[in-house]
Design brief:
Blueprint: E1 2-5, E2 12-16, H1 28-39, E3 44-48, E4 54-56, E5 69-74, E6 79-88, E7 96-103, E8 108-109, E9 111-116, E10 128-133, E11 146-151
Parallel strand pairs: 4-8, 9-11
Antiparallel strand pairs: 1-2, 3-4, 3-5, 6-7, 6-10, 7-9, 10-11
Length: about 160
């Protein structure tokens, strides 16, 4: 601890100290399974046992009807960019990074992640994307096991 002491009175005016805190959070039952499957290169969703709602990231209960879910739906199809933000990182604006909310057909919810450019055009809302996983040996059971969602090549339409 260090302190600032007033010279005349000896009163402590300010001090600097720290409280060592250590937090450990679990992802919960659904989150744990989701992360383990990401490590294996699969995106898993939950399906309600009553109303049939499919949701990603998975939940242990349905947000629509409150019933239990099965966490065993593998999303094997491409997603689409539902919203997008692109950040320019250099003064000359050539280095850019995009993040988007990726949704999947027939699935509630979605994933926020990096959008990887196909190199020809900037990504747009509605573009189809596919997950790009890290090499198997580099995966740790994290959302970052997905390097990002790669945009597919688009056919120009009108003044695109």
């Amino acid at each position: 601890m260090s302190a600032v002491v007033q010279a005349k009175t000896g009163r402590i005016m300010a001090w600097k100290d720290s409280i060592p805190l250590h937090y450990e959070y679990t992802a919960g039952a659904a989150g744990e399974l989701f992360l383990r499957e990401l490590k294996e290169g699969r995106i898993l969703a939950s399906k309600c046992t009553t109303c049939g709602e499919v949701r990603v990231p998975p939940r242990t209960y349905c947000l629509e009807c409150g019933a239990g879910t099965r966490i065993d739906v593998e999303l094997q199809h491409s997603g689409r960019i539902a919203s997008l933000s692109t950040v320019r990182l250099q003064v000359d604006l050539t280095l850019r990074t995009s993040f988007g909310f990726v949704t999947f057909a027939g699935v509630h919810g979605g994933l926020v992640h990096k959008i990887l450019h196909d190199g020809r055009k900037d990504p747009k809302v509605g573009d189809p994307v596919m997950p790009l996983f890290l090499a198997l040996g580099l995966r740790k059971g994290s959302i970052l096991d997905v390097a990002g969602f790669r945009t597919a090549a688009r056919t120009p339409v009108g003044n695109d």
